[in-house]
Structures are given as structure tokens and as C-alpha cells.
């Protein structure tokens, strides 16, 4: 890979343009500009995909582990236990099937932006050849189902079931987990695996509760209204005027299908999306059949190296992620002998060049110059999650598609008949909220209930002065409880299932150690939490300028208190170092940092 830096690029002018665009989007409300989806006007968070109610009697039992959540985090926890010879677990899932994110998100065009060969967990062990490089949501859901079938998880799953409480019982040294189905399950261990993108959010637009038409969130797509399926063909919209609010990852995948089907589509944009071509292709069977054992580990580690700016000898993925990261990393390391300031400058120039190319691509696709200009992203490539979608910009050439660019502001209001911006009302029959999710909220919030640990203390009380954990997974006063995929105070990756697997294996190994030691409980000490907080402080990104200068989004906590953003509140040493920390800790830190109760109490 060779990077040629543009010698005439106006560094200062571009940086100022980015800052000006950011300032348009900073609000005093920060994350408070959003509402919870379970606001009374919207109705309960229900399951629109349930074929029928699951009729069963309440469960009363003792198990080794209760796993809250049936997405990939929970599935990987269950598989990791299974591989340790522990099959006495119970998975509790709100949905009517396992799959988590890939069960709930069924909007047209939904697919993963990390290629299937890296993303699908345990594909080498339980998978079959993906149909294409970037597979659609139904195929990802089928992989989750295949994992569950192969390892007996379905037989141990309570579906259509919401947890209502989890209380530590000192006498029995077990977690008493109750549900909305009358279940009472006593688990020796508790795994919170409710995920990082499980709570949809709505924009706090005045009048939202007055709209008389149809509305839904992309995470609860209403195919009964739109017709069609994940592949499009939304025939129910042929006579409908539709507004979609948002241009993030979900919206840019759904918009091409909405544009094809709706009588008229209004796209409400606050911040333009940085969208590259997907470059999808069918999987080559000859390549697939020649893969040698261990291929997934090598490929996944290589991908992680690229997206963490670690030079790699070869590119095993060869997509937009690795090419762009590699380009910027090469530019940065080309000045390694000139000091960190010049390294940072060269990386920034490479970023400017990349974004200039993206803006030029929009000019080459979108016919109307005014619309093209409005669609151009003016921020650094990693200020928002990069998107790879085909047909997005082409949609704005359709005569039935109107871009409403709010220039960084919100809509004025929503009326009974439509949406209003700059005093102009656009009458619509349907509003689709593509406003995303709460990201990396605490497990008590993502799961919808608060855990009670020793002495009845809740997790929210324990963390009221700030989150305290060991490795982002374990917490004092909450014995035998671990969090998978919490992100904050843990390792972070772009390929989230990669880290989910490592954390699940780590938790399962601790459970096995407790069994071997005859220990009823483990609990991290306050000293261990203090040490980890110190490590996090020492490893934290010292320079917050990048995030502070980014356009608002969930990466930088909507431009408020960047230190609490997912980007700065995780382990700053990167995923490789974090995994090494977990490995070393199992070898030498467990006895120091955890209090083990040696006498096992019979259930």
C-alpha cells in the first residue's frame, strides 16, 4: 500500500470547516435530546415478529448460570460454558427467538458492515459458507440459530420472557432471578448479556405524541404496514408519503428501499453520513473450501490489527475498513523518525484526502448540486462509524425523494399531519424513526431491571459516583456476576463479536476455576476495582482533541463530557493488550483480586 499525501491540501481551511460544521450541531441537551422508546405515547416495547405466544408453565429450578440475553453475547457465554463441560445453564430472552440485535433489526436492507468471515462468531466451528461477503440480517440470524441448535441452547432457553429481578441471596449463595412469566430460577452465577444496542431511542421532537398517522422505529419495523421484507419490495407504501428521521447506519440501508417503493419519501438529515461503496460479492466456494484450520483466528486478528493502527504484513480482509485504516496508519508511520507531532499531522492529511474522495464521489453520483452539497460529510473519517452501502446516494436522484437538510438542527415540531422544518409543513402518512440506540448503557438499564447485590444494594446505587469494575466485567458486592459486551472499562473493537467471545471464554474459565477449587462464590475486591480504575486512567487516551472536534454522535457522547463516551471510557491499551491482561490475570491475578468462598453451600 502506498499513500501519496496531497501537497496542496489546505490543512487549516479544512480543519476550520470541520469545526464550523460541528458547532452547528452542538446542543445544550446532549444525550437528553432523545426519548426512550417506551414513552407512553409509543406503547410498550413489544415483539412484532412473534408468530404466536409461547405457552408454558413457570419454571422453578436451580442452575449453574442464568444468562440474561439471547443475542451473540449470551450465545457465546452459553457455548463457552458448554466447552468447559458446563451445560447446566438457563438463557432468558425477551424476543420470541434468540439472535438479539439480529432478531429485532429486520428493516429492509439490514446487514452487517463487517464481512461475514470476520463477524460471524464460531463460524469455523459451527458455521456453513456464507452466501456473500456482507450477508443480510436473516442469514446472520440463521447463524445464531445454528449455534443454538448445535449446542443445545434452545432446550435451555426461556423465550418471550423478560427478567423482572435478580437478587443475591446470601443464605443459599445464589442469584434469585424472577421473570414476567412467573419463573423463579436460582442461579449460582449470573451473566448479564443484554448487549450494547438493545434500547432504541427517539428524538425529542415537540408534538411527537400528536401525530395521527403511522409511526415506528427501525428496530421494530412494521412489515404489516409497509409490506415486503428484508430484501425490499415495500408494496404497502406505494400510495404513502413517508418521512424517515435520521441518516445513520440503519437509515442509509433502508432509504434505497423506501425510495423505490414509497409514493414520496422525505429524508430528514441532521448530519450527513459518510458512506462508501459496499463492494459486496458472492462467497467463492473454491476459496472457502481451501481455508485451513485456524483461519478465522488469523483473519480476525489481522482485521483487529488494521483497525487499531498496528502495521500488518498482509491484508487478509481487503475491504474499506482495512484499506482506509492501512492508508492512514502508513501515512502516520512514514514520519516515525520525525516525532509524534508530524506523525499525527500526516495521519490527519491522509484522513482529509480520504474524506475529499468521499465528497467527490457524491458529486459524481448525485445530479442536483445543491442536494449533493447537503449530503457531504465534513468531519474526520472515524468521527462516526464508517458506512458501506450501495445505492444510497443514487436514491436522491429519484423524483419522489426529497432531502430535508436541517443544517444540524432538529425539526421544528411534529403535527397531526406531518413534520415541520423552518416553518414549512410536510404532510406524511408515516414517520419512521431511524434514531438509533442507547449505546453501552449500564447493564441494569439495558436489561430493564436493577440487580440487588450483597445487603440489597442495587447496581445503580453502587455506581452512583461512577462505574467501578474489574476488566469491565466484574463488580464488588455482586458475587458471581459478570457482564459480557459492556464496552466501558473493557476492550473495544469494531468487530464486536470478536471481543464478546474473549470475554465469554474468560468468564467461563473463572466458573471452571471455582468448580475446581470447590468455591461457592467469587467476588472482586474493592482494591481490585481501584487498581483497574488506575490502569484505565494511565491507559486512557491523553489527547481528547480528536473527539472534541468531531461532529456530535454517540462516539463523543453527543459532544458533551467526552470522557464519559465509549471511546474514552474503555481500556485505552487496545484489544490485543486487553486480551493479554485477561490471560495474565487468570494466571496470576485471580487469587489476589477475588475473594473466593471455599465452602460450597448446598442448594
Features:
603 residues, alpha/beta, FAD/NAD(P)-binding domain, 8-stranded mixed β-sheet, 5-stranded parallel β-sheet, 19 helices, 23 strands, 16% strand, globular, disordered C terminus
Topology overview:
Blueprint: H1 11-25, E1 34-36, E2 60-68, H2 72-83, E3 89-92, H3 101-104, H4 116-119, H5 123-126, H6 137-150, E4 157-158, E5 163-169, E6 174-179, E7 184-192, E8 199-203, E9 214-217, H7 223-226, E10 241-245, H8 249-261, E11 264-269, E12 275-276, H9 285-289, H10 295-307, H11 320-333, H12 340-365, H13 369-374, E13 387-388, E14 401-405, E15 413-414, E16 418-421, E17 424-427, E18 430-433, E19 437-438, H14 443-447, E20 451-452, H15 459-462, E21 481-483, H16 496-517, E22 521-524, H17 526-539, H18 545-549, H19 574-593, E23 594-597
Parallel strand pairs: 2-3, 2-7, 3-4, 5-20, 7-21, 9-18, 10-11, 10-18, 11-14, 12-13
Antiparallel strand pairs: 1-8, 5-6, 6-7, 8-19, 15-16, 16-17, 22-23
Helix pairs in contact: 2-16, 11-12, 16-19
| Fraction of residues in β-strands | 15-25%
Helix content: 25-40%
Oligomer: single chain
The whole-angstrom Rg is 24 Å
CATH topology of the domain at 11-40 and 200-278 and 369-438: FAD/NAD(P)-binding domain
The total of beta strands comes to 23
Largest sheet: 8 strands, mixed
CATH architecture annotation name of the domain at 11-40 and 200-278 and 369-438: 3-Layer(bba) Sandwich
Low-confidence residue ranges: 39-44, 599-603
Quickly count the helices.
19
Q: Based on helices, strands and strand pairing, what is the structural class?
A: alpha/beta
- Provide the residue-averaged pLDDT: 87
Q: Could you name the CATH homologous superfamily of the domain at 11-40 and 200-278 and 369-438?
A: FAD/NAD(P)-binding domain
Give the overall form: globular
What is the C-level CATH assignment of the domain at 11-40 and 200-278 and 369-438? Alpha Beta
Query: Ends: how far apart?
Result: 61 Å
Amino acid at each position: 500500500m502506498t499513500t501519496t499525501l496531497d501537497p496542496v491540501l489546505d490543512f487549516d481551511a479544512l480543519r476550520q470547516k470541520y469545526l464550523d460544521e460541528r458547532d452547528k450541531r452542538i446542543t445544550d441537551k446532549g444525550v437528553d435530546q432523545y426519548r426512550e422508546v417506551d414513552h407512553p405515547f409509543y406503547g410498550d416495547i413489544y415483539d412484532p415478529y412473534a408468530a404466536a405466544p409461547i405457552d408454558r408453565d413457570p419454571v422453578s429450578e436451580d442452575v449453574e448460570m442464568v444468562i440474561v440475553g439471547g443475542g451473540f453475547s449470551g450465545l457465546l457465554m452459553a457455548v463457552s460454558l458448554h466447552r468447559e463441560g458446563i451445560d447446566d445453564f438457563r438463557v432468558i430472552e425477551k424476543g420470541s427467538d434468540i439472535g438479539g440485535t439480529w432478531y429485532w433489526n429486520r428493516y429492509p436492507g439490514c446487514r452487517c458492515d463487517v464481512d461475514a468471515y470476520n463477524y460471524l462468531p464460531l463460524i469455523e466451528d459451527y458455521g456453513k459458507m456464507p452466501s456473500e461477503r456482507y450477508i443480510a440480517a436473516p442469514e446472520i440470524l440463521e447463524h445464531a440459530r445454528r449455534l443454538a441448535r448445535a449446542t443445545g441452547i434452545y432446550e435451555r432457553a426461556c423465550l418471550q420472557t423478560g427478567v423482572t429481578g435478580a437478587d443475591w441471596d446470601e443464605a443459599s449463595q445464589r442469584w434469585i432471578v424472577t421473570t414476567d412469566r412467573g419463573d423463579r430460577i436460582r442461579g449460582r452465577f449470573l451473566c448479564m448479556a443484554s448487549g450494547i444496542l438493545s434500547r432504541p431511542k427517539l428524538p425529542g421532537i415537540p408534538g411527537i405524541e400528536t401525530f395521527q398517522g403511522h409511526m415506528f422505529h427501525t428496530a421494530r419495523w412494521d412489515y404489516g404496514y409497509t409490506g415486503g421484507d428484508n430484501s425490499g419490495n415495500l408494496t404497502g407504501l406505494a400510495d404513502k408519503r413517508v418521512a424517515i428521521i435520521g441518516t445513520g447506519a440503519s437509515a442509509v440501508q433502508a432509504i434505497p428501499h423506501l425510495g423505490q417503493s414509497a409514493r414520496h419519501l422525505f429524508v430528514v438529515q441532521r448530519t450527513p453520513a459518510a458512506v462508501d461503496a459496499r463492494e459486496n460479492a458472492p462467497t467463492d466456494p473454491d476459496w472457502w473450501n481451501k481455508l485451513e484450520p485456524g483461519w478465522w483466528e488469523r483473519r480476525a486478528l489481522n482485521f483487529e490489527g488494521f483497525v487499531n493502527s498496528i502495521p500488518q504484513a498482509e491484508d487478509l480482509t481487503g475491504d474499506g475498513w482495512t484499506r482506509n485504516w492501512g492508508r492512514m496508519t502508513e501515512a502516520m508511520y512514514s514520519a516515525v523518525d520525525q516525532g509524534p507531532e508530524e506523525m499525527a499531522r500526516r495521519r490527519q492529511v491522509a484522513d482529509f484526502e480520504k474524506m475529499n474522495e468521499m465528497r467527490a464521489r457524491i458529486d459524481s453520483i448525485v445530479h442536483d448540486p445543491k442536494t449533493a452539497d447537503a449530503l457531504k460529510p465534513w468531519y474526520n473519517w472515524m468521527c462516526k462509524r464508517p458506512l458501506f452501502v450501495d445505492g444510497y446516494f443514487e436514491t436522491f436522484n429519484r423524483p419522489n425523494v426529497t432531502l430535508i437538510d436541517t443544517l444540524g438542527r432538529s425539526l421544528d415540531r411534529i403535527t397531526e399531519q406531518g413534520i415541520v422544518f423552518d416553518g414549512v409543513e410536510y404532510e406524511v402518512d408515516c414517520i419512521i424513526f431511524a434514531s438509533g440506540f442507547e449505546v453501552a448503557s449500564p447493564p441494569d438499564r439495558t436489561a430493564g431491571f436493577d440487580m440487588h447485590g450483597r445487603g440489597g444494594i442495587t447496581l445503580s446505587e453502587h455506581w452512583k459516583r461512577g462505574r467501578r469494575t474489574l476488566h469491565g466485567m466484574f463488580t464488588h458486592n455482586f458475587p458471581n456476576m459478570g457482564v459480557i459486551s459492556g464496552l466501558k472499562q473493557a476492550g473495544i473493537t469494531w468487530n464486536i463479536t470478536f471481543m464478546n467471545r474473549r470475554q465469554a471464554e474468560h468468564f467461563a474459565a473463572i466458573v471452571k476455576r471455582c468448580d475446581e477449587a470447590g468455591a461457592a462464590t467469587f467476588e472482586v475486591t474493592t482494591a481490585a476495582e481501584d487498581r483497574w480504575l488506575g490502569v484505565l486512567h494511565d491507559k486512557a487516551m491523553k489527547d481528547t482533541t480528536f473527539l472534541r472536534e468531531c461532529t456530535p454522535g454517540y462516539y463523543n457522547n453527543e459532544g458533551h463530557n467526552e470522557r464519559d463516551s465509549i471511546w474514552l471510557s474503555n481500556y485505552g491499551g487496545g484489544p490485543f493488550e486487553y486480551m493479554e491482561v485477561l490471560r495474565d490475570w487468570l494466571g496470576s491475578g485471580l487469587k489476589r483480586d477475588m475473594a473466593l468462598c471455599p465452602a460450597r453451600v448446598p442448594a
